[in-house]
């Protein structure tokens, strides 16, 4: 019996290890294939820093919009009941499963030069496509669901009795939101914001189709990697290493934050 249990456990561990090896192999290969000299040479390419600067600016701006608009939405979804709330929640989560190319086509259909809202948004003939603002819009579209989903889950973990007690003591809905709900949900909100920012940083398909690939204007880090593959593989590898390192550091920070939050809640 003990031997059978050990064999079954080894089979489960082996199956999981196989997936871990498969996921880790490309990342390890990327790091091993990029020497320090190649990394320095790639990072010195004139394509790199404009793309990095644009990515940091656009993802930061998109995160402000996502958090500023998504936090009240998530709080409302967490407290609401009924079919309408569930329908809205499903609609907000839809961009997660929509392919990036479809997201780009959909944004062109809505906000492009011949889009559904062309007459309302661009009465003078100007269009947002091909501008830095289009990059921000694409990043908001693909990254907002990650924050809203995490924030909604965080707000649902707040004991509704605490909110009710605050209201019975005369606190206004806004005061309850800012003084009770937000502090109690802060770790989940921060984690959601970090994941949203990481998704915006890695956005490629929707940005390429809706904003284009104009150096210094719409060319973010993923688009710069795409362009560099045709000219200098060292630059593409260097930029890829930068994105991997940033994503890894972000995940470590989020895990540490969640662990500290869990320990703080468990302590008396």
What does this structure look like?
It is a single chain. This protein has 268 residues and is mostly helical. The chain has one domain: MetI-like (MetI-like fold). 80% of the residues lie in helices and 0% in strands. The protein has twelve helices and no strands. The chain has helices spanning 2-33, 36-43, 48-79, 83-97, 100-111, 118-121, 132-156, 160-168, 173-201, 205-210, 221-228, 233-266. The longest helix has 34 residues, at 233-266.
Topology:
Layout: H1 2-33, H2 36-43, H3 48-79, H4 83-97, H5 100-111, H6 118-121, H7 132-156, H8 160-168, H9 173-201, H10 205-210, H11 221-228, H12 233-266
Helix pairs in contact: 1-12, 2-12, 3-7, 3-9, 4-7, 7-9, 8-9, 9-12, 11-12
Question: What keyword list fits this structure?
Answer:
268 residues, mainly alpha, MetI-like fold, 0% strand
């Amino acid at each position: 019996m003990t031997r059978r249990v050990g064999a079954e456990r080894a089979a489960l561990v082996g199956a999981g290890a196989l997936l871990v090896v498969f996921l880790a192999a490309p990342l390890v290969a990327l790091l091993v294939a990029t020497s320090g000299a190649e990394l320095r040479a790639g990072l010195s390419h004139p394509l790199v820093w404009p793309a990095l600067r644009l990515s940091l600016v656009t993802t930061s701006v998109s995160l402000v919009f996502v958090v500023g608009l998504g936090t009240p939405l998530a709080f409302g979804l967490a407290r609401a009941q009924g079919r309408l709330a569930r329908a809205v929640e499903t609609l907000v989560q839809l961009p997660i499963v929509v392919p990036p190319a479809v997201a780009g086509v959909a944004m062109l259909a809505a906000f492009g030069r011949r889009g559904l809202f062309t007459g309302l948004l661009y009465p003078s003939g100007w269009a947002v496509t091909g501008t830095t603002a289009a990059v921000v819009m694409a990043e908001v579209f693909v990254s907002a669901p990650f924050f809203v989903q995490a924030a909604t889950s965080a707000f649902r973990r707040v004991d509704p009795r605490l909110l009710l007690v605050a209201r019975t003591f005369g606190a206004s809905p806004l005061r309850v939101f800012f003084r009770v709900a937000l502090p109690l949900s802060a770790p989940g909100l921060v984690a959601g914001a970090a994941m949203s920012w990481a998704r915006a940083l890695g956005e490629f398909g929707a940005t390429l189709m809706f904003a284009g690939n104009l150096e210094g204007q719409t060319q973010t880090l993923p688009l710069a990697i795409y362009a560099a593959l045709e000219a200098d593989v060292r630059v593409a590898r260097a930029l890829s290493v930068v994105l991997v390192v940033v994503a890894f550091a972000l995940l470590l920070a989020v895990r540490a934050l969640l662990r500290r939050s869990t320990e703080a809640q468990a302590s008396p």
